[in-house]
Batch of 3 targets.
Target 1
Amino acid sequence: KQEVTQIPAALSVPEGENLVLNCSFTDSAIYNLQWFRQDPGKGLTSLLLIQSSQREQTSGRLNASLDKSSGRSTLYIAASQPGDSATYLCAVSIEYGNKLVFGAGTILRVKS
Amino acid sequence: NAGVTQTPKFQVLKTGQSMTLQCAQDMNHEYMSWYRQDPGMGLRLIHYSVGAGITDQGEVPNGYNVSRSTTEDFPLRLLSAAPSQTSVYFCASSYSYGGAEAFFGQGTRLTVV
């Protein structure tokens, strides 16, 4: 059974720091990995999607990498801002048809 | 572009009541699914559908029923609500090929008392 773990569970950093969120999964047979952002009481916003054949994706200050063989992904946030404060979720697609298995998330707080 | 729309946003039920959570998408996606989100546990798959007339169970299907009569709509029915079903429910849609990007609704926060 695929399991997804996110470390750390919570992170508090001062504004301007570069930071890394980690996601690991137990079965390398995935179709893609997606990073989401969730604001309190809100839905999920897709940040980055990495296909299983890709190594990384970038969007603005965000960079996500994927090492399928070792079952790891990292989300790098450059020059963090208070507006980045949210819960970050990673999910892997495990079947044709797009079943997703989620990690429990990392709660990020960026202090001004 | 509406994307994935869920209604209602909030609901309070008494134990034993039934209700339907609505989900609609306007992206002509074949694949639709329902997840529940509980504190500290991430999202878990309840039911999913790969097209009109085809549904299947996910990880936590007990107490829930689904049907898919159209491509656009995928309602989730709670048959007899229990306090353990207090949760935030999310509907998602995507194209059905592996690797397609998933799009989520804004969620329904359900409390069963």
Target 2
Amino acid sequence: GQNIDQPTEMTATEGAIVQINCTYQTSGFNGLFWYQQHAGEAPTFLSYNVLDGLEEKGRFSSFLSRSKGYSYLLLKELQMKDSASYLCAVIWPKGGATNKLIFGTGTLLAVQP
Amino acid sequence: ETGVTQTPRHLVMGMTNKKSLKCEQHLGHNAMYWYKQSAKKPLELMFVYSLEERVENNSVPSRFSPECPNSSHLFLHLHTLQPEDSALYLCASSQGTGGGDTQYFGPGTRLTVL
């Protein structure tokens, strides 16, 4: 089976740095997405990693290690508006031309003053 | 309007009702998706359409019936639902179904089945 693991909840302080981890065990791998989802809203795209290493985009960075089945999302200079659920999703090459996104349960991040 | 839109945003229905969810994407994409998001569970893929052809049916009960009349519109027809079908139903679209094709989500329809 396919399995994606993330912590259920995390708490951090405004202005701090937080790292949200994601580990995966899947029978195939074509990349990994991170999405942010505020309560009652659509998931919005944050990052995409397909090769090992760190991708930096402003205050957000995402890291991937394919050999370890591991990714993390790093949020710097936390702001109150960063309070949201963060979803890790692995691109699973189902077969043919169709790839399937397999999601973790999401990590609910609460940023406190 | 831009992006992916969904209507209605909220829906309450009885188990004997028939209703439809609508999704529209304004991104010029060729692939569209239906997902189910239940509390404390991962997003579950239900259906995938590529160029208006259904390419994935993820073992979804027949009481959910998708329809894709063109590449910009996607419907989910609902009938004789169960209370456990109450969830947030999300629509998404992407340029294609390749590995690097980012999926863009709509705001979802919050469905409650009484």
Target 3
Amino acid sequence: DTGVSQNPRHKITKRGQNVTFRCDPISEHNRLYWYRQTLGQGPEFLTYFQNEAQLEKSRLLSDRFSAERPKGSFSTLEIQRTEQGDSAMYLCASSPGRDEQYFGPGTRLTVT
Amino acid sequence: GIQVEQSPPDLILQEGANSTLRCNFSDSVNNLQWFHQNPWGQLINLFYIPSGTKQNGRLSATTVATERYSLLYISSSQTTDSGVYFCAVEVVWGTDKLIFGTGTRLQVFP
């Protein structure tokens, strides 16, 4: 039984560079979510997909952020022109429906 | 929007002690989950408990949806219980996203 996986686990980048993260959900889970967590805070919702359709985006998701789930399986989250304020843990979760969500280990981004 | 508040914010225990963590929410919810976040940042599912009571080993949880609160009980605490505990809710009128509480940081000493 494989859980949600995320790659890379850590990413250090210079301000202004683009980064891309990948999330592989639990097999057959049709819903996939992205959250962001900054130090000392709880995770905050960014966006979610049902199959390949992106159904909601948070106001936190500025124009520099884009997420895709091209075939309804894995998803990517890209941040363009990174800023120091983007430094955070990016968490992915999946669920089989409007049901319990299961989280991956996260990608920790540091922008220098 | 909905407010999700947890108490206490910090808790320090000696191994073997019992504790109760509380989660208050300000609106009707479809879903409530309790998580333990370990020192590496992984969120571990503890309970999916929109209402009622569940038990899993030394942990149990109760949600009283009509009164808008949930409780997480930890008995005979161990050092491995250390970390941050979050409750997260999904509002009735909203979409599927989870809204996380403020968290309770638990430290268990031997």
